[in-house]
Design a protein that fits this description.
There is one protein chain. The protein is mainly alpha-helical and 330 residues long. Helix content is 59%, strand content 2%. The chain is elongated, with a radius of gyration of 25 Å. InterPro entries: CB (IPR044068), DNA_brk_join_enz (IPR011010), Integrase-like_cat_sf (IPR013762), Integrase_catalytic (IPR002104), Integrase_recombinase_N (IPR010998), Integrase_SAM-like_N (IPR004107), Tyrosine_recombinase_XerCD (IPR050090). This is Tyr recombinase domain-containing protein. It holds the Pfam family Phage_integrase.
């Protein structure tokens, strides 16, 4: 009987199917390797704890998956939303009980993204599937799905001349300020747009973005006198019921930059301005460690252990000595 059961289990594993019978019949002795597969409780214990009806409810699945991501794995809110959105699409597409998901189901869903979408989008879907299958279902059938690596960006850094040409075609005070903040601070796209009035020390021109991710560390950065002048012109136009400085979404900013790019004949994105900031700071002989600090790329452990080197006072001194200019200078 034991030999027959082992053959059945091997067949199910080879097919990559999460069979109910296989799971129920495999609740005996477990090897050390089996015990390390799932994050927390194993999938077999989930079957015991959750009524079978819940397993077929998309709402319940998404709720428990969200809990795992936000509580067990402590992922940031944006990542949780992205993973849950992907799994919602996946569950709509397979039209079968959760416990019957097989490897081919995963392949079929991923195929349309691999063939019809950008590599970054496909990579995002693969990451979600691997987390869902491994950490939520307790299975390893998705572990050999490779996550495509982005191509090396060989795009040349923006010239100062093209930067100014783009700026001349910006027609609103808000977007002039946003543009200069990106170019003079080195902050990420979301960090600039998420800045609130409390995140800015206007006297010191210092930015203290809130941490939005466990893996990307933010400290402090600064903005230059050009940005300060543009911000002073824009601030009186803000709506009083929103504490965010720029009060605009990432998608709207991206669309606006595309329109300005078309009008000016110079393609620029917020991400390109961050890259320009890094290169400009290097040309101004700023040490790479300080550039990484301005861009929020230095781990908190390093910041804590080298506080005197990366204190706000020291970073302000380095920033002001560099005297970065976007619209003037070389």
């Amino acid at each position: 009987m034991s030999s027959r059961l082992n053959k059945i289990k091997k067949t199910e594993i080879d097919r990559g199917v999460l069979s109910q019978d296989t799971i129920k019949n495999s609740q005996g002795a477990r090897s050390p390797a089996d015990k390390t597969q799932a994050c927390g409780a194993s999938y077999t214990s989930k079957i015991k704890e959750v009524p079978e009806k819940s397993l077929d409810s998309k709402k319940d699945i998404l709720k428990r998956f969200e809990d795992l991501l936000s509580i067990d794995k402590d992922l940031d809110e944006k990542t949780v939303r992205k993973h849950c959105g992907n799994i919602s699409e996946f569950l709509d597409s397979i039209n079968k009980p959760l416990i019957k998901i097989g490897k081919q189901d995963l392949r079929d869903w991923l195929r349309k993204y691999k063939e019809n979408y950008a590599k970054a989008t496909y990579a995002n879907k693969v990451k979600t599937i691997r987390v869902f299958v491994r950490d939520f279902l307790g299975s390893d059938i998705a572990e050999n799905f490779s996550i495509p690596q982005p191509k090396k960006n060989n795009q040349s850094v923006l010239s100062d001349q093209n930067l100014r040409k783009f700026y001349q075609d910006i027609q609103s005070d808000k977007y002039r300020a946003i543009f200069l903040f990106y170019a003079s601070s080195g902050l990420r796209t979301s960090e600039v747009l998420n800045l609130t009035m409390e995140d800015v020390d206007f006297e010191k021109r210092m930015l203290i973005p809130k941490n939005r991710s466990r893996t990307k560390k933010s400290y402090v950065s600064f903005y230059n006198s050009e940005s300060e002048e543009a911000l002073d012109k824009f601030l009186p136009q803000r709506k009083p019921d929103d504490d965010k400085i720029f009060q605009v979404s990432r998608n709207v900013v991206a669309k606006t930059f595309r329109r300005i790019s078309k009008r000016s004949g110079v393609k620029i994105t917020p991400k390109m301005l961050r890259k320009w900031f890094c290169e400009k700071m290097r040309r101004l002989n700023v040490d790479r460690g300080y550039i990484d600090a301005f861009c929020g790329r230095v781990p908190k452990t390093v910041l804590d252990s080298h506080y005197s080197d990366f204190s706000p006072e020291r970073l302000k001194e380095v920033y002001e000595k560099a005297n970065i200019k976007v619209l003037d200078g070389e």
